[in-house]
C-alpha cells in the first residue's frame, strides 16, 4: 500500500497536479455520496432486521427446504442461499456456523464456501449503486440479479459434486 501511495503521489508530481487539493475534492464528493446513500442504507438494514426478527426468514427456509432437498441442495445451506442476497454479514455468520457444525471439508461446507465466493449481496449492491446515481426504477435488475444468485447456488452444488465424485 505504501508503494501504491508513493506511485500515485509521484505521478501527481510529474503531471503537476495539486495532489492535496485533488484529494480534498475527492473526499468532499465521497461525503456527499455517503450522505445521499444513508437513507437507503438505513432502510435496507431496518428491513433485514425486521425480516429476521419476525421469523419470516425461518418460515421461508422451512417452505423452501423440501424443494431444495429435491434439487440436491444440502438442507444446511438453504438459510445461506436465502440470506446471501440480503445480508453479507448474516450470510457470513451462517457460513461460520456451517463450518463449526459440519466442518469446512464437508459437502455442506464446500458448497457454502463456493456459494459465498460466487454470489453477491444483491439488495445491498442495488441500493448502493442505483442509489448513488439516484435511479429509482430498477427495471429488470432485481429479477436478473436474483436469477444469477439462484444459478450460482445451483452451480455451487453441481461444482462441488463434480469435484468430489
Structure description:
There is one protein chain. The protein has 8 helices and no strands. By secondary structure, the chain is mostly helical. It has helices spanning 2-14, 19-54, 56-71, 78-83, 88-102, 107-118, 122-132, 141-164. The model has no long low-confidence stretch (mean pLDDT 87). It has one domain (36-164). The protein is extended. α2 packs across α7 (122-132), α5 runs antiparallel to α6 (107-118) and α6 (107-118) runs antiparallel to α8.
Give the CA-CA distance, first to last residue.
42 Å
Number of structural units classed as domains: 1
**Quaternary organisation:** single chain
Shape: extended
Q: Would you tell me the overall average pLDDT?
A: 87
| Helix coverage percent | over 70%
Rounded Rg: 21 Å
How many helices? The count is: 8
Classify the secondary structure makeup into a structural class: mainly alpha
SSE series: HHHHHHHH
Low-confidence stretches are none
How would you characterize the largest beta sheet? Answer: none
Strand percent estimate: under 5%
**How many β strands by DSSP?**
0
List the helices and strands and how they pair.
Elements (H helix, E strand, L loop, with lengths): L1 H13 L4 H36 L1 H16 L6 H6 L4 H15 L4 H12 L3 H11 L8 H24 L1
Helix pairs in contact: 2-7, 5-6, 6-8
List keywords for this structure.
single chain, extended, 165 residues, mainly alpha
Amino acid at each position: 500500500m505504501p508503494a501504491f501511495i508513493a506511485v500515485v503521489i509521484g505521478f501527481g508530481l510529474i503531471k503537476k497536479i495539486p495532489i492535496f487539493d485533488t484529494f480534498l475534492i475527492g473526499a468532499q464528493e465521497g461525503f456527499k455520496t455517503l450522505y445521499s446513500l444513508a437513507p437507503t442504507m438505513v432502510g435496507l438494514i431496518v428491513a433485514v432486521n425486521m425480516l429476521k426478527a419476525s421469523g419470516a426468514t425461518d418460515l421461508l427456509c422451512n417452505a423452501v427446504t423440501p424443494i431444495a432437498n429435491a434439487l440436491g441442495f444440502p438442507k444446511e445451506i438453504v438459510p445461506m442461499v436465502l440470506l446471501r442476497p440480503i445480508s453479507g454479514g448474516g450470510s457470513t455468520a451462517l457460513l461460520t456456523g456451517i463450518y463449526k457444525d459440519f466442518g469446512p471439508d464437508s459437502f455442506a461446507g464446500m458448497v457454502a464456501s463456493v456459494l459465498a465466493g460466487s454470489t453477491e449481496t444483491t439488495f445491498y449492491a442495488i441500493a448502493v449503486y442505483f442509489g448513488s446515481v439516484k435511479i429509482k426504477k430498477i427495471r429488470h435488475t432485481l429479477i436478473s440479479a436474483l436469477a444469477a444468485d439462484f444459478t450460482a447456488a445451483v452451480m455451487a452444488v453441481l461444482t462441488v459434486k463434480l469435484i468430489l465424485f
